Amino acid sequence: MSLDPQPLAPALEAAEAAGWTTVRLDLSGVRGKAELMRRCGDALRLPEWVGGNWDALADALRDLSWLPSPPGGGRLLAISSWRGYAGARPGEWETLVEVLEEAVDFWREREPSGGELVVVLADPEAGPGPVAGAPPRTPRLKRRRG
Q1: What is the pTM of this model?
Q2: Do residues 141 and 95 touch, judged by C-beta distance below 8 A?
Q3: By Cβ atoms counted within 10 A, which residue in 13, 55, 79, 130 is the most buried?
Q4: 40 neighbors 112 (Cβ within 8 angstroms)
Q5: What residues contact residue 27 under an 8 Å CB cut-off, 6+ apart?
């Protein structure tokens, strides 16, 4: 996952035009892990077995069987209004970013010719934000999730 500025609307339009499955996750007003997990569950239509913890979310993002992508297509997760959560809970935000990076890497390795997962971070009111799905950032130490 890399953090290169990209506008949200063109990414969504391009993904939809290419036949990708798109999911929009709005984090406005989210200030804690429980609310974040609920929003992720709702937006991604996660199965009931997915618990409200980081490891369960990571496992779900490596499964995605309930969120099909068409042949040769992929999945785009567009996260908006994330800056408030990142500022209110920087440690949790870092863990979420790690979970998303691992999922992006997993799908890139598993489906090199399509079917991958791309994550776009943006704040429409503040302009473009970072995008995930390109080569990974400089590696960092893994933190234990709880």
Answers
A1: 0.78
A2: no
A3: 79
A4: no
A5: 36, 39, 79, 80, 81, 82, 84, 85
In tens, the pLDDT along 77-100 reads 999 999 999 999 999 999 999 999
Strands (E), the chain: 4-6, 21-26, 75-80, 117-122, 129-132
- The structure tokens 């200030």 sit at 31
- Burial of residue 84 (CB within 10 Å: 0-12, 13-18, 19+) is middle
Kindly state the tokens that stand for 29: 């007003």
51-78 pLDDT, tens digit per residue, is 889 999 999 999 888 887 777 788 999 9
CA–CA dist 125, 102 (Å, integer)? 28
Give me the DSSP letters along 33-72: HHHHHHHHHHHHT--TT--SSHHHHHHHHTT-TTS---TT
